[in-house]
Design goal:
Layout: H1 4-19, H2 27-39, E1 43-44, H3 45-52, H4 56-69, E2 72-77, E3 80-87, H5 91-121, H6 130-172, H7 188-193
Antiparallel strand pairs: 1-3, 2-3
Helix pairs in contact: 1-2, 2-4, 5-6
Length: about 220
């Protein structure tokens, strides 16, 4: 009979595997990552094969994938010819790694395609048509949306886990919506500046306005570009 801890580990590994497809990896790779994460220690390929009941080839292939993603690191031990693997135990850093890799693999190719399409449509000799103008407008909206999401991600990374608490408190306090007197939509910056207690000053990592001390991400680590 499994202990409570073993049962909970197995449950998390299964559910993590089912979730893997949502962030761009296959089920086995996600299960290996979950196993390494919940184990809290480095495991060799034999350990992973035994616990997940998978072949050596399957384990090796997916471990290489996790190393490529930056989610797992190889380790070597003196007097042991086996390779060991350990997952990053920092959940915040894991989130950052996953999001950066997904953006590199999925979002950046779309942005490059948009720029290529704009260059073609703007080249000499291309007739100006209503359909072409509508196409460019849609491209611009898509590019603006993806760029905004990228900016928000960088903001989340720079604020770090402590600073996000401040942003959540700010959101819970009721950032004013609507439009300013000019009739123009409020930008993110103007809404943050108008938030209760902000006084038009930027928020620091701990959520207080006007504090210029700023740390980022993992123990003050600067966000990677």
């Amino acid at each position: 009979m499994l202990s409570g801890l073993a049962e909970c580990r197995n449950l998390l590994v299964r559910r993590w595997g089912e979730m893997g497809g949502y962030w761009g990896i296959n089920r086995t790779m996600a299960e290996i990552h979950a196993l390494l994460f919940v184990s809290g220690e480095a495991l060799c390929t034999d350990d992973i094969m035994a616990q997940l009941h998978i072949s050596r080839g399957n384990a090796s292939m997916n471990l290489r994938g996790l190393v490529d993603w930056g989610l797992v690191q190889r380790q070597h031990r003196l007097g042991d010819r086996k390779e060991y693997f350990q997952a990053d135990g920092d959940v915040w850093h894991m989130f950052e790694t996953i999001m950066r890799e997904r953006r590199r693999r999925e979002v950046e190719p779309i942005l490059n395609a948009i720029e290529r399409c704009r260059a073609i449509m703007s080249s000499p000799g291309q007739p100006a048509t209503a359909q072409g103008e509508d196409f460019l407008r849609r491209l611009d909206e898509l590019r603006r949306f993806l760029s905004t999401m990228g900016t928000l991600f960088e903001m989340v990374v720079q604020f770090g886990p402590d600073g996000i608490d401040g942003l959540l408190r700010l959101a819970g306090a009721g950032v004013p919506a609507g439009r300013p007197a000019s009739g123009q939509p409020r930008t993110l910056e103007t809404r943050l500046a108008a938030a209760p207690g902000a006084g038009g000053r930027p928020l620091s990592q701990n959520g207080r306005a006007g504090d210029k001390r700023h740390k980022s991400g993992r123990g003050g680590r600067k966000a990677r570009i």
